[in-house]
Structures are given as C-alpha cells and as structure tokens.
Design goal:
Arginase, Chain A, histone deacetylase activity, eight-stranded parallel sheet, His_deacetylse_dom_sf, 14% strand, two-stranded antiparallel sheet, 14 strands, His_deacetylse_dom, single chain, globular, alpha/beta, 380 residues
Length: 380
C-alpha cells in the first residue's frame, strides 16, 4: 500500500479568533449577543483525535514542517499586506481584512500552516509519499493578495501551488475546491494563469457574496482555466457526486494532450448536513466518494500525486466522521469506526440528484470555452 502523508501541528489549535457577532452584513447592536467565534480549534482537534483513536494515524507518514518563508508568501500576497499582518501580530492582533480576526502571534501560526502545505508538496513530488492530508488552521482559500477574508490569513493552497510551479518546475496543476464557500482567494491567485486549472464546487451565493459565479472564467492566458460550479442550497449526496464527476472530467482534459502533474484539493467539510455555515446535505459517504474520484483522477494523470488541504468545516460533532472517511479512502484502509449519523442523514429527503441541481451544473459547464471542453487549450 502506497504511503499517505499527514500533517497536524498542535500550534494550529492555538490560533484564536476571539468572540464573534456571527459576522453577517448586519448592524452590531445591543440586541446581537456575541458568541465564541465559529472557527474554533475543536472541530480540527476532534478530527485528529478520531483519526488517532481509529488507529488510522499509525498507517500514515507524519510530515514535519517549517514555517513558510517571506519569499514563499510573497509569491501570493503583497508586501503591504504582509507588513500589516506582522504589525498586528506583534501587537494585539486584529482583523486581517474581512472577517479574518486573529490574536497576537497569529501570523506565526499562519506561516506554519502554509509551510506545512509546502512540505506536503515536497514530500509528494519527492515520492516519499503518494498522497497526503494537511489538517491546517487557520484555513486559507479566502485569503486574497491584499487582505484576509473569511477566517483566512494566508492562502495555504495557493502558496503551495506557487511553490510547486516556481521552485519544483511544475507546469500543470489542478486545484479542486469543495468547501461550501467559494475559493475566491485561490481563484484570484491564478485567474490569469494557464498553469493551474481551478474548479470550485460551492453553495451558490454563500460567502463571499461577490464571487463564485459561473461566468468567472479567468482572463488572459488563464481564460477557461477557472470553473465555478455553484450548487443550489439543499444540494446533497447526488448533486455532489454529479459535480465531482464533471469536475474530474474537465480537469483531466483541461491541458489537452498533456496530463496534470499534481492534483490539489481545498477540502472543506462545511457542506455537511450538520454544518452551521452551510445549507447543504452531504454526509461522510459523500466525502468518501469525492476523495475516491480525485484519487482515481490522480492515478490516471500523475501517478497518484494528490494533496488535500483542510479548509472549513465547523461541526465539532460531525466533521470528524467526514475527515475519517476521507483518510480511509486516501490510505485504502477501512477502520472499525462507523458513522453513527449516516443512516439518518442518508434517509433525509432529496439526497438524490434533483433536476434543478443538474441544470445548475450543466449551465455552469456550458460557459466553459469549447477549446477547454474538447481538450484543446491552445485552440488549434
């Protein structure tokens, strides 16, 4: 069995977002009582704990990491933004931009998360492992060049992909994002690049409200290398299975006769039926299927080179079972743990693909330039 890498640092649990008014576009008044910030360490720690108790961690290769260097971060983020983060981190913390609060020392933890992603890329490309999972915190896919957004300070997956391109010499990378929220920061980082095919499967018009639309196709050299598949609220297992099959088919042919050299996944568990920040209906077997599909894609295209980076997922109760299903599929090892909620959620209505969901997927794919769909990115 080919080894699977795994990265988790206790320091990730020390990132602290403070109290929250449950950030929404509403006025903060006396009548909005603050709560503990929804992005807490617990959902991630409980994933790690269940992996440990299940015995699965013993079957993985621990991937150590160093913090990302400033040069590595500056491939994605601006110097002005990094200076702001440094100043806030060395004082009392603050907000990195739009709903991205952090405490003193928060930048150091974010650098460690980004560095873990880079280390996983190196481990896969050096063939020490065939695939790997980075259980990261803070998440990254919302972070833009000049600001943090949506709990994200640094864009972990974009930083790691830039490393793969500029240091390791890769020219064809696929990034698939199945977090319930659109990966706006990752989209921005590669919007004019023909070296990264970015595909985002997300809830339509969730966070952020200003991106994630099907007509955002890239620009310049990157035209056609950006695909958004916004799904209607209430989408469940059937819709996500259809969406990931479409995404993998597009990914496999997006570079024409050349195959992708690395598959990277922004893995969020917030499209589960239990999650407080999404309105979707997925369950642990959905995530097992998503992982199976991208693993088979990697096997067909790049000798199995596959990396999953953790993004969202805020149900402390249910995210661990989703994470376990993903890791079982990555390792090819089935643990004795059973999802105690699976039977109930699988019986909930409309889990199968609905006509309006199929229409949403088809409508998005119809916007992709025909040269990309037919596997001829140069348009010859």
């Amino acid at each position: 069995m080919a080894p699977t890498g795994y990265a988790w640092q206790e320091a990730f649990g020390w990132h602290f977002g403070g109290m929250s008014f449950h950030e929404r576009p509403c006025k903060r008044t006396l009548f909005v009582q603050p709560i503990q910030h929804v992005e807490t360490p617990e959902s991630k720690r409980r994933i790690h704990s269940l992996l440990q108790v299940s015995g699965l961690l013993k079957e993985t290769v621990p991937i150590d990491s160093l913090p990302a260097t400033l040069d590595e971060v500056l491939r994605v983020h601006s110097q002005e933004y990094l200076t702001k983060l440094t100043e806030l981190s060395e004082c009392e913390g603050g907000d990195a931009g739009d709903c991205a609060p952090f405490s003193p020392g928060g930048l150091g933890i974010a650098l460690l998360a980004a560095g873990s992603a880079i280390s996983m890329v190196n481990a896969v490309l050096d063939e020490r492992i065939v695939n790997g999972y980075c259980l990261l915190r803070p998440p990254g896919h919302h972070a833009e060049r000049d600001r943090g957004r949506g709990f994200c300070l640094l864009n972990n997956i974009a930083i790691a992909a830039k490393h793969a391109i500029e240091v390791r010499g890769l020219e064809r990378i696929v990034i698939i994002d199945w977090d319930v929220h659109h990966g706006n920061g990752t989209q921005q980082a590669f919007y004019d690049s023909d070296k990264v095919m970015f595909i985002s499967i997300h809830q339509d018009r969730n966070y952020p409200l200003d991106s994630g639309f099907a007509d955002e196709l890239g620009q310049g050299l990157g035209l056609g290398f950006n695909c958004n598949l916004p799904l209607p609220p209430g989408s469940g297992d059937g819709a996500y299975r259809e969406a990931i099959r479409a995404a993998c088919s597009l990914a496999e042919t997006s570079f024409g006769d050349e195959k992708p050299q690395l598959i990277m996944i922004s893995c969020g568990f917030d499209c589960s039926f239990f999650d407080p920040l999404g309105s979707m209906m997925c369950h642990s077997e959905t995530f097992r299927y998503l992982t199976q599909q991208v693993k088979e894609l990697a096997d067909r295209c790049c000798s199995g080179k596959l990396i999953l980076l953790h993004e969202g997922g805020y149900s402390e109760v249910y995210a661990p079972f989703c994470g376990l299903a993903v890791m079982e599929e990555l390792t090819g090892i089935k643990s004795k743990v059973q999802d105690p909620y699976l039977e109930e959620v699988a019986m909930l209505g409309q889990q199968e693909l609905q006509p309006h969901q199929q229409h949403a997927i088809n409508s998005s794919l119809e916007k992709i330039p025909s040269r990309i769909l037919r596997g001829d990115p140069s348009g010859n």
